[in-house]
Specification:
Elements lengths: L5 E7 L10 E2 L10 H14 L14 E7 L1 E3 L5 H4 L24 E3 H13 L8 E5 L7 H11 L11 H5 L14 E2 L2 H7 L8 H10 L3
Parallel strand pairs: 1-3, 2-7, 3-6, 4-5
């Protein structure tokens, strides 16, 4: 469609693979090995190839932005929704055994995804052969830190809970996760190129926002 002006593809920070907790940018090597992330890398390349570069003889074409999203949270999709009074509070600090770095999770409030997409879609940036952006908040954090903040906002005790025999014998839904590596993703490119401003710069503002709006 020659009238197509912009395409936004939502990818994942999982494409970076493991960096042992170090910071990564859009220029960092993609080290992923899991099938879903490898497929996303392929999709990113195919989409960005559709945008002509500013050095190309083709001067007309859609702008293509690929957004590497962190873990998405929002209404009915956050620790506020899954935590209840029987959920034990994490008892260990963020640091792990043997001095290893904590397992960081990169996150993004769904409202901030929408804000970024609206900015990008309305932009008139020059053709550059496609752009890639990390779509994450300012502070990657271990899941335990976020759970403790959610419990605080819900007015729950922050001390470890002891299960009764009845609770210990009750079935619990197993948490299913994919190991896509440990890294902290920078969002500076999206801020500098599109002037993106976050509703929730960190998980603290994000969880408070959901509580205040009863989401």
């Amino acid at each position: 469609d020659t009238n197509l002006q912009w395409v936004g593809y939502l990818s994942s920070t999982g494409v970076y693979g493991d960096y042992n907790g170090d910071w990564v940018t859009e220029e960092s090597e993609l080290r992923c090995v899991d099938a879903k992330s490898v497929a996303r890398v392929k999709a990113e390349k195919e989409w960005t190839a559709l945008e002509p570069s500013n050095e190309s003889s083709q001067k007309v074409g859609p702008r293509i932005d690929c957004f590497r999203c962190g873990g998405i949270y929002g209404p009915n999709r956050s620790p506020l929704f899954t935590i209840n009074k029987e959920t034990p509070s994490p008892s260990s600090p963020a640091a792990t055994e043997g001095g290893a770095p904590p397992k960081y999770v990169n996150r993004i409030l769904v409202d901030d995804i929408c804000g970024a997409l609206l900015l990008a879609a309305s932009s008139e940036r020059i053709l550059q052969g496609g752009r890639v952006f990390n779509l994450v908040d300012d502070e990657p954090a271990p899941r335990g830190d976020v759970v403790r903040e959610a419990r605080k906002l819900l007015g729950l005790d922050d001390t470890p809970s002891s299960q009764t025999k009845e609770e210990a014998g009750s079935p619990r839904r197993k948490r299913v996760t994919r190991n896509t590596g440990n890294k902290r993703c920078s969002n500076e490119r999206l801020k500098s190129e599109y002037g993106w401003q976050l509703t929730a710069p960190t998980y603290r503002e994000g969880l408070a926002y959901l509580v205040q709006n009863e989401l």
